[in-house]
Amino acid sequence: MAHTTNSETYDGTTWTEVSNISTARGKMGAAGTQTAGVIYGGYVSTPVGNTNVTEEYDGSSWTTSPGTLYEDIAQMAAFGTLTTAVMAGGYNYKASPPKARAVTQEYNGTTWASNPSPSGDLGSANYDMSGAGTQTAGLSIGGNPGAKTTTEEYNGTAWTAGGALLAGKAV
Fold this sequence. Notes:
This protein is mainly beta and about 170 residues long. Helix content is about 0%, strand content about 35%.
């Protein structure tokens, strides 16, 4: 599947083409608002695999950030704002062999940092999950492998088990 660099905004009624992102990709993380957003990581078609590139959006144009994820990763839980984004878990297609990850990284608007807390990573390696919330009240929901029913809650330092989904979910 070929990816595109196209970017569009929605005003509640209509989609409008805006400036393009620099790296064509899919399955990336995203956080923020329509006027202060960030995308990171993702799956790229050429060369086949993941990327660690971070791009910021100011409401009119995309800029590649000098801050990159610590590893090339896609399909992660993503949430937060432009200056407090979080990525958790995900899948590294470039690893040998490719593997699911449990790592958590936080973005401050300039650089990414791994969470140093002993409980700063997800309870298990996971990918294809949904993410929601803020850097101090975030969620990782469902995922793979195996269409998980788990929910994990993040307080900015540690992940803890949350309530179970009624049915397994993967995005």
